[in-house]
Amino acid sequence: MNEGLPINKIVCGDNCEVMRTLPSESIDLVVTSPPYDDLRTYGGHSWDFYGVAWNLKRLLKVGGVIVWIVADATKNGSETGTSMRQALHFQSIGLNIHDTMIWEKTGQGACGSNSCYWQNWEYMFVISKGRLSTFNPIEDRKNASGVGKCVAPSGKDESGKWKYKREIETRDLGRRFNHWTIAAEGGLHPAPFPEALARDHILSWSNEGDIVLDPFSGSGTTAKMAKHNGRRFIGIEVNQEYCDIAEKRLAQDVLF
Known about the structure:
This protein is an alpha/beta fold. The chain has two domains: 193 residues, 3-Layer(aba) Sandwich (Rossmann fold), CATH 3.40.50; 28 residues. It has six helices and 14 strands. Helix 5 links the parallel strand 13 and strand 14. The mean pLDDT is 87.
């Protein structure tokens, strides 16, 4: 099944060209953050969203997940809306928008205009190919109700009234909300990807031994976190400088 896959490698090249050489339904999870509109040139390279989307759908196993982390530029006083159009395109080609998550970054600023509230978040679209095959929920949220039993309403009738109530057992820590607050990081890449963000998505949507792909590998954070957490990885990056950085980071990490 893994024949023809560059397992545990960073491949330097155009992501569409590289992905076309990989076998269909061979990838368990994609965790990536593509360039947002034209906010940064990334060495002057352009990319084909529709080609990337088609290739990712083909490569993803049934039950697999794409985590697509993206934001919008503001042009002529209007946000582009590119992120939402991309999510809807994935849906139009037969994938599911499983969840629309939010990454809240530390720090804030005006994006395109000072006449708005400070912006400090990005979308994290969780796109699935059919029904999810893996979900390992992270449980690190302090339960407000504490430990013990409590009564919770469940289900509403047509009038909007609760149908019944049920008794549930609560623990000290509960499942995380889909709004994650994770500090942004500096680095040698113009848009560094926080290691904790990549790690938590890898833990959530894959199991040990699974293959994790990042078609916009950059400085190799997704690859590093996959390796560190017992997954196999494939990174694709068009910029040779970033490929070299990624290789150095991986060489310094834990052994395979």
